Amino acid sequence: MKITFRKLVIKNFKGIEELEVNYDASVTNILGANHTGKTTTADAIMWVLFGKNSEGQAKFGISPKDKENNIIPNLENVVELTMAVDEHVYALRKVRKGVTNKKDERTGNTIECFINDRRLTLTDYQEEIKAICSENLFKAITSPQYFNSLTADQQRALLVKMVGETSAEQVAAGDKDFAAMLNEIGGDDIKAYREHLSYMMKQVKESLNALPERITENEEMRQQLQDAGTNFAAMRKRLGEIEEAIKKYDEQLLDSTAAVTQQQQQRAEIRRQIGEIEKEQQAITYRIDTENRKQAKLHDDKVADLEYQLKDVRRDIDKKSSEIGRYEQDLQSIELLAADFRKRWQEVEAETFEWDTSKETCPTCGQPLPTIDVERLKKDANDRWMNAHMEKQDALDAEAAKMKEQKRQADAEIYNGIGKLEILKTQETDIARKLDEARQETVALSKAEDDERWAELQSECEQLKHQLNIMTAEVTGSGDNQIILQNKADLQKQRDQLKADLGRENLIAMRTARIEELSEQMRTLNQQLTELESKDYTANRFENAMIRDLESRVNGLFDLVRFSMFETLLNGSTRPTCVMTMHGVPYNDLSNSEKINAGIDLIKAMSRYNDVYAPIIIDNAESCNHILPTECQQIRLVVSMDEKLTIVN
């Protein structure tokens, strides 16, 4: 659809008394000095179409005024616009008339609307105009400044509507990593997915940072046990040799008493009992060693839990301190506002009614008004002033109450925040104390020798061994047997000492097992971190692919301008935006001529998308030496030295 203006007629509209503009099919130049009515022609077009001026204001000064800035009474404001919409011609006319009461006082206005000389109600007239072209679309394709008057969100929504949304599946097509990621997140938002990954990576890193210290603590404890220089392998070998030698001595003693069958059976029973006792002792030793490992692990877990608690409460302290700081800044802002408020209050309180004596003279004939009329006018003016003055005071009262409430809320938040901060600091001190105490604690490791049952068994075992030695000595009764018994006793002492020394090996094994457990946790967490970072990298690539796809399709609409549809934040994430540039320069930094051509480039794209073409009204056209050509009409408002409007086609 193509809209073409043919003729514009203006009568008594703003500062124009009467004007007729016949538009050229391609370019019409409207020239004139400042304040000669160039912008008024644009206001007239927008008013006859949509009842607003070129800035979108429904209430603006339509009525002409005299040199003293008084509205000239009894004038009809008329705007007629003849335009073609494809093959159809529409003659639009609006007439604004004043409405008076019985005293011939103007009380309002009425508007008459006509299309092709057919009178319509204002509602029907607006519906017919809307059927041709909506107000927003008309402004978008006729004003080079319109697009950049929108917010970034509105601009972005309009551009996305023009190019259409590309689905995540379409962007992911051909990339197996993208496809796997979309399958994992389901219908969730990619930004929420990345925030979740960031949180998980932070948690894993905190856990990883705590592990090296805990591993070092266990390595130091293990090293202290190893520093004794004991060779446990050699000790176990020597223990085996001693056990074998004792066994041989027992066999020699047994052989020497073979003749005494009854004593041999008794000794065998004693040895069986000794074996049962030693077996039970070994079970007790294993149970105690297991409990020792459990206690060591509980101690390590307690320290780790307190460390986590301390980190959490310190994070809460930092957060609460920041909140208090923000509210203190709010209080400072309120104090500044209060100072300004007191100044304005004093100004309002100091205001007094002042009568304009020029009102005592008739504006038409210049004669003094009757005293009764002057008094009435003065009373009316004083009443209006009093009402306005009281409204100002009421507004100031409301503002004061609002500031007082804001200060009360800020004070309350600071008071409550300080209380909570003190609680958190108390918690911090308590947790830090508990952590220090826990770190200083020495894990009480039990020894088998201290177990009551083990000691009872040891006593029984020693008695049985003593009994066995006596029986053996009685059987042999020879010097050789005495030597064997002495040698066996010496070996038994060495064996007992070796067993006691080998007890440290269990403690070293406990620390080694704990180190391996923590190291395995570290390997697992590192693997988790690698997987999370890989997923975040894929998500970041996917976000960039979505950005490139959208920006490529948006920028493909235009010849000159380019758009950045996303902004990269300091943490690497992105957020939607809409920033227009031309030749790499932001729109706000462009010259006036570049802004005009940028706006025309936008209009050309929006006209193509909507398939609606309308005259482009270019204000300050004199600032641009080369205005982009367009398929539709151009109405150029040019500042010149002409004292009256001049139309050049």
From TrEMBL:
<dbReference type="InterPro" id="IPR027417">
    <property type="entry name" value="P-loop_NTPase"/>
</dbReference>
<feature type="domain" description="Rad50/SbcC-type AAA">
    <location>
        <begin position="7"/>
        <end position="281"/>
    </location>
</feature>
<feature type="coiled-coil region">
    <location>
        <begin position="218"/>
        <end position="330"/>
    </location>
</feature>
<feature type="coiled-coil region">
    <location>
        <begin position="386"/>
        <end position="535"/>
    </location>
</feature>
<dbReference type="GO" id="GO:0006302">
    <property type="term" value="P:double-strand break repair"/>
</dbReference>
<dbReference type="GO" id="GO:0016887">
    <property type="term" value="F:ATP hydrolysis activity"/>
</dbReference>
<keyword id="KW-0175">Coiled coil</keyword>
<protein>
    <recommendedName>
        <fullName>Rad50/SbcC-type AAA domain-containing protein</fullName>
    </recommendedName>
</protein>
<dbReference type="Pfam" id="PF13476">
    <property type="entry name" value="AAA_23"/>
</dbReference>
<dbReference type="InterPro" id="IPR038729">
    <property type="entry name" value="Rad50/SbcC_AAA"/>
</dbReference>
